[in-house]
Amino acid sequence: MAVNVLGGANRALADESPGLQRQDEIVRLVRQDCGSCHGMTLAGGLGPALLPALLRDKPPESLVATILYGRPGTPMPPWSDFLTENEAKWIVEKLLKGFPDER
Questions:
Q1: pLDDT score recorded for residue 2
Q2: Spatial separation of the C-alpha atoms in residues 45 and 32, rounded to whole Å
Q3: What was the pLDDT predicted at 57?
Q4: Minimal CA–CA distance to 103: which of 21, 38, 19?
Q5: How far is it, in rounded angstroms, from Cα 35 to Cα 96?
Q6: Closest CA to 60 of 92, 31, 83, 90
Q7: Which residues contact 55 (CB under 8 A, 6 or more apart)?
Q8: Potential cystine with 93: which of 4, 13, 15, 59 (Cβ 3.0-4.6 Å)?
Q9: Domains of the chain
Q10: Read out DSSP for 37-92?
Q11: Whole-angstrom Cα distance, residue 6 to residue 27?
């Protein structure tokens, strides 16, 4: 049963992926803007590492909420002015698999 729930959550994250051009823009945003705190390889810096092994136990919905709304009282800003919910879900899906490099 847990596998079905997890599989369903991952499918829900991927349901409405951004177009290819927007995906490229988002990859640049994550690598450059998020990388300035989380490390250029996302292996950690001022902010925690965003590597699959370290994120797999975190609920995807929680990661999406952190991207969109930030973490009050920390340096993590909200990105909801720049990203839609579906784009944040796409980022989480990619982070859980290993975030792509810029093309």
A1: 38
A2: 13
A3: 96
A4: 21
A5: 16
A6: 92
A7: 63, 95, 96
A8: 13
A9: 2-97 (1.10.760.10)
A10: HH-TTSS-SSSPP--HHHHTTS-HHHHHHHHHH--TTSS----TTT--HHHHHHHH
A11: 25
Task: Provide CB contacts within 8 A for 39, sequence distance 6+.
Answer: 45, 47, 49
The position carrying tokens 């596998």 is: 3
Token pair of 58, please? 């975190």
Tokens of 70: 């930030």
Q: Which residue matches tokens 């300035």?
A: 36
CA distances for 54 relative to 18, 24, 42, 48, angstroms: 25, 24, 11, 9
Distance separating alpha carbons of residues 103 and 93, to the nearest angstrom: 18
Whose tokens are 């051009």? That residue is 21
pLDDT at 102: 81
pLDDT tens by residue, 35-57: 999 999 999 999 999 999 999 99
